Amino acid sequence: MRVALLALVCCFVGTGVTRAQVPDDVWLIHIEEGLNSVTFVDAARIERREANVRRAWAWVYYAPGGRDEKRVFLADYDCAERSFQGVRSTQYRTTGETYSVTAQADWTYPIPSSAADNVMGFVCMADAERPQQPYYVRLNAMHPPRTMDDAAAALFHVR
């Protein structure tokens, strides 16, 4: 199912998005079971921190009809220990309300095959390895290129 959905996103007839509108280096990282959410990471914003730790932003878009529209979160990923800790999170509700939390949570291990696990795998991967991975799709490599909003809308449209 994931391959079929990714193919549909790649082929989705566009809204006239130009390359200048596409964020730096955004990748589709995770499609939740049942297509309830999709997760993106901007590889250009991954920061290398001390030792094996990297800091990255991720965007989670939720299927229409729910309470939340999207969530943006910043986390540190310890690539050697395969653990992460939240730094900041903002939820955008469909009502227009916004909720932000800033806190250094304890280090934790992601649930296997979860969005957090897939984000960590992507963030900890060497830059040169990313294009060879069949599990990730680079939005600015699509024709026409996609923004996160467009890609999420296209995925939810085929639901």
Per the CATH scheme, the topology name is: Lipocalin
- Strand percent estimate: 25-35%
Total count of helical runs of at least 4 residues: 3
Largest sheet: 8 strands, antiparallel
Q: Any idea what the radius of gyration is?
A: 15 Å
> What count of domains describes the coordinates?
1
Kindly report how far apart the N and C termini lie: 11 Å
What is the CATH architecture annotation? Beta Barrel
* Average pLDDT over all residues: 78
Residues in helices, as a percent range: 10-25%
CATH secondary-structure class? Mainly Beta
Q: Element order, helices and strands?
A: HEEEEEEEHEH
Walk me through what this model shows:
This protein is 19% helix and 33% strand. With 159 residues, it is of the alpha+beta class. The protein has a single domain (2-157), classed as Beta Barrel (Lipocalin). Strands 1, 2, 3, 4, 5, 6, 7 and 8 form an eight-stranded antiparallel β-sheet that branches. The longest helix has 10 residues, at 2-11. The chain is globular and about 40 Å long.
